[in-house]
Design a protein that fits this description.
Blueprint: E1 2-13, E2 19-27, E3 32-36, H1 65-79, E4 83-84, H2 87-98, H3 108-126, H4 130-138, E5 149-156, E6 169-173, H5 180-202, H6 221-234, E7 244-248, E8 255-256, E9 259-260, H7 269-282, E10 285-289, H8 300-307, E11 312-315, H9 323-332, E12 337-340, H10 348-360, E13 364-368, H11 378-385, E14 390-394, H12 399-415
Parallel strand pairs: 5-14, 7-10, 10-11, 11-12, 12-13, 13-14
Antiparallel strand pairs: 1-2, 1-4, 2-3, 5-6, 6-7, 8-9
């Protein structure tokens, strides 16, 4: 049981200099939780709605004063003085208060900030690490048992880097690493090799995209993948057995009128699947994220049949951490992995349901940050507590990314937990 004594909100800036929301929750016991929420650039149509002020004279309309005002006003008026037995009761009160399917009235950014701040305050009240409290939210009585394996941005395109190539990210997965520490050291070596390659090949110093990935002017996606392979080898690792690749295709952003505009001739869905399968033949890719467009439902099962067993068929915009979409995808055999982004759905309890559904179906779960992040590190605790197979935070640069990796290192040191295979 936790009784809320005070709720407050604050508009802060994310890693792109755009506004986002921070909430403070103080309990009657004296425990306090503070949490900041991220914001995405590549967003799915089914995501919960971030409430923005739409005042063009301030932050180009992206201000969050309305969302903050809801925390200080209507949400505080409804929740302060109330006692909640657990996280799901608090989140249900938030959902009912908003009253819309996509959190459009009060804003998913306002609701999630309160949901997270309450969780952090409850962990503090119990005197337990946040990751252990998250484990209990995921499944009553559960405890954290393993650490996620990082998938770390190397090269970026798409909406993260101005669209010099259509696909969004090529990521490094240190598949042979036994610890988080070793995985980060391996990735650092590959990243530095890639930076040197970019200077030699493109005359470009290490300027980075939204999530810290390098973003030289690749001729096409094939060149992006080829350079990633070259960087792995240049760093002294064997591609495939020591370091593999994960690919965020983000196909919805170059899909129109039933065709995929990846480069050259437009591809229909069958052609896009053949193209992706061809990449798997030539490159050590272990995960394909959003290989097809988010509403190309009819063809996702064919994608899974074509590449399943060789690479994860990972849904981001396709699934939007939405339990209803996940159930539909499970029934259709349309994917075998969930990219879990808590702010896509808007409360911790709904995200936990999405995670449980995916794991019960035997899917992998990759817990993910967003392109607009803050220095808050709660995501690392959540990935550990919810038994995430992978953690996708961004590159091995920039403090809003490193805060999560550093938290993961701290959890590894204090808990003795092992990283997933």
């Amino acid at each position: 049981m936790a009784t809320i004594r005070r709720l407050d909100g604050l508009e802060i800036l994310d890693s792109r200099g755009r506004p986002t929301v921070r909430a403070t929750c103080a309990l009657a016991s004296g425990a306090v939780g503070i949490a900041s929420v991220p914001s995405g650039a590549s967003t799915g149509a089914a995501e919960a709605l971030e409430l923005r002020d739409r005042d063009p004279s301030r932050y180009g309309g992206l201000g969050c004063r309305k969302a903050v005002g809801h925390i200080r006003g209507e949400i505080a008026a409804a929740l302060v003085g109330q006692t909640f037995p657990d996280q799901s009761a608090l989140d249900r009160a938030l959902i009912d208060l908003d009253g819309t399917p996509n959190k459009a009235r009060l804003g998913a950014n306002a609701l999630l900030a309160v949901s997270l701040a309450f969780a952090r305050a409850c962990a503090a009240e119990q005197g337990i690490p946040l990751y252990q409290h998250f484990a209990a939210i995921h499944t009553a009585g559960s405890v954290a048992r393993s650490l996620p394996r990082p998938t770390i941005n190397l090269f970026s395109g798409g909406k993260h880097a101005g669209g010099q190539v259509p696909i969004q990210d090529v990521l490094v997965v240190a598949v042979a690493a036994k610890t988080v520490d070793e995985a980060l050291a391996t990735t650092y070596a590959v990243y530095q090799a890639a930076a040197a390659l970019c200077l030699e090949k493109y005359g470009m110093r290490a300027l980075t995209a939204d999530e810290g990935g390098l973003a030289p002017p690749f001729a096409d996606a094939e060149a992006m993948l080829g350079d990633a392979l070259a960087a792995i080898e240049r760093a002294g690792f064997t591609a495939g057995s020591e370091v593999s690749l994960a690919l965020d295709v983000a196909s919805s952003h170059f899909y129109a009128d039933g065709r995929y505009y990846l480069g050259g001739e437009p591809l229909d869905s069958a052609g896009m699947i053949r193209h992706l399968a061809g990449w798997l033949e030539r490159y050590p890719i272990v995960s394909l994220e959003d290989g097809l467009a988010e509403e190309d439902w009819a063809n996702w099962p064919a994608l899974r049949q074509a590449v399943g067993g060789r690479a994860l068929v990972l849904g981001d915009d396709f699934l939007c951490t939405n339990p209803a979409r996940i159930r539909r995808a499970i029934a259709a055999g349309a994917a075998d992995a969930l990219l879990l982004k808590v702010n896509q759905i808007g409360t911790l309890s709904e995200a936990a349901e999405a995670c449980r559904l995916a794991q019960a179906a035997g899917w992998h779960v990759t817990v993910s940050a967003r392109s607009g992040e803050t220095e808050d590190d709660w995501l690392a605790d959540l990935a550990v507590g919810w038994a995430g197979d992978h953690l996708k935070v961004g590159s091995i640069t920039q403090s809003e990314r490193l805060a999560k990796y550093n938290r993961l290192l701290a959890i590894e040191a204090e808990s003795g937990l092992k990283m997933t295979g």
